[in-house]
Write a structure and sequence with these properties.
One of its GO terms (biological process) is lipopolysaccharide biosynthetic process. The chain is built from 16 helices and 13 strands. It has 375 residues and is of the alpha/beta class.
Length: 375
Amino acid sequence: MPIGIDYTPAYEQGGGIGRYVRELVAALAAHDSAQTYHLFVGGARQNKLPPAPAPNFRYRSTRLSPLTLARLWHRARLPLPVELFVGKVRLFHATDFVLPPTLPRTRTLLTVHDLSFARLPDSAAPSLRAYLEAVVPRSARRADHILADSAATKADLIALYGIPESKITVLYSGVSEAFKPTHDSAIQSAVRAKYGIGESPYVLSVGTVQPRKNYERLMQAFAALPTRWADLKLVIVGGRGWLDSPIYAQARALGERVLLTGFAEESDLPALYSGALCLAFPSLYEGFGLPVLEGMACGVPVLTSNVSSLPEVAGDAALMIDPHSVEAIRAGLIELLEEDSAAHAARIERGYAQAKRFTWHAAAQQLKALYERLI
């Protein structure tokens, strides 16, 4: 009997959880050619879907949008089992925080990426926060097992929801092999032109434009850099999020020194990382923090926060700072921008080594073993 996987985020979302689901399923397809998988996609027509990742992976879609399904399943609480769309399955893996109704004999696995809406409620859109606060705890308690993106997220699930430790497995994300140093001058020039960066040196930050990414403090710290860095730009790559008006207003006040590019195509990210003098990722909370590892894999020194999952992801390869302190961010940027060549080279080597510890192949192996244990 098949295993069902919610592939909707991979279809709906360009980055973030969408990338996570695409990469994980692609690695699973490369690792397992025997088990049949049904990929559930909400809000899609069968003829609009990309090719399945392997012959043993088959789409099961519905034109009902994810929003409509959420209203039916989680607001109206209608017990319409997901098997009506995905077919009978031995196990259903919900990949995006919430678990739909299932038939009684179907085993369930739920991925919880982070609990930022609970840990930092003021950083979440009020309507989304209210929805997640109601649905995620209920889903977590109902699931047979839970995947957490990090040990920090696992600890949050235990502390905030009382989930037994034995019910949670940490499954780390991987770094795609596409993320490697990209210094070809033609590629660099094309990417700089595409995103309006020009020829200036730049500090890069990557992530959706929203309060949790701490862009306001990052811009304050950047604006306070010594005048010898006056020609430096801050390039923020990420789509519009929520509660973002103050962020855009502050960027406008800093003029041409700060560039918000909007969403960047995944294929352009290695060049964007590689062209930066450093990556600044002073997030207030992360379930994992994949840009940290992607920057390291591209040979860029990384500044990040000493909170949530980021220390376990960054190891000893990043410069860790207090994300609540503008001065700490400023001092960290100066340290990375001005460290001597030997310290810089050693930091880059530590970054390469740290990034290599996280692979989608290892994640797929672990996931397949967990599927087998649950069924």
